[in-house]
Amino acid sequence: MFDFLEDYDVLGAFWVTVQLTVYSAIGSLIWGTLLAAMRVSPVPLMRGFGTAYVNVVRNIPLTIIILFTSLGLFQTLGIKLGSEDFTVINFRLAVLGLIAYTSAFVCEALRSGINTVPVGQAEAARAIGLNFRQVLTLVVLPQAFRSVVGPLANVLIALTKNTTVAAAIGVAEAAFLMKEMIENEAQVILIAAIFAFGFVCLTLPTGLILGWVGKKVAVKR
């Protein structure tokens, strides 16, 4: 019943999905943290940029963002992201698009965590001479991260599923292979079940592990 799988590299496709998720998650966490810092910054220009970015990007379909990275950045502007290999370029463009999109949700999750930190702690930090950057990095963000592990886990799970959109620009991840297999094989339901099970294996442990971590590191108020 599963003999047809020998002609396809299913594990390789899911490995590409894992790579997309990991690289995009790291980039989204970094850029999302910077956006959250901008949104609570005392500088009006930075606050305005952070607010505009989040409100615009999270209301644009991810498919449009991914297609823009390929059609706009690569094909129109000729941006190759340091490679001549078309496969590598598409992979990096997909990561860039996923980072641009997911970081908006990371930002909002972090901003909600920042709002849970008592104002008195930031005021006390300023009273002893700490500047905004020091207050944010030494006092506020450490507590904010501990309080939003759960929401960030949800963002990571959503990111894992969103990697399927990378198939739109030819990245050979799980959804791309599934489409190819459905076109060439008759066992449509079985193929769909195999890939659905694969994504459950990726996302379910993530949710359980990060949920447990969230409870362990939660700030006791």
Relevant terms:
221 residues, mainly alpha, MetI-like fold, 9 helices, globular
Protein architecture, described:
GO terms for molecular function: transmembrane transporter activity. Belongs to the binding-protein-dependent transport system permease family. HisMQ subfamily. Helix 1 packs antiparallel against helix 2 (44-57), helix 4 packs antiparallel against helix 7 (149-162) and helix 8 runs antiparallel to helix 9 (188-217). The protein is mainly α and 221 residues long. The protein has a single domain (3-217), classed as MetI-like (MetI-like fold, Orthogonal Bundle), CATH 1.10.3720.10. The mean pLDDT is 88. The radius of gyration is 20 Å and the shape is globular. The chain has helices at residues 10-39, 44-57, 62-76, 86-116, 119-127, 132-147, 149-162, 174-184, 188-217. The longest helix is centred in the middle third of the chain and has 31 residues, at 86-116. 77% of the residues lie in helices and 0% in strands. It is built from nine helices and no strands.
Give the N-terminus to C-terminus distance in angstroms: 55 Å
Mean pLDDT, all residues: 88
Number of helical runs?
9
User: How much helix, percentage-wise, in residues?
Assistant: over 70%
CATH architecture: Orthogonal Bundle
Measured on Cα atoms, how large is the radius of gyration?
20 Å
Beta-strand percentage?
A: under 5%
Largest sheet: none
Counting helices, strands and paired strands, the structural category is: mainly alpha
User: What form results from the Cα inertia axes?
Assistant: globular
CATH topology call: MetI-like fold
The overall number of domains is: 1
Total strand count, please? 0
| Assigned CATH superfamily | MetI-like
Uncertain parts: none
* Broad CATH class: Mainly Alpha
Order of helices and strands: HHHHHHHHH
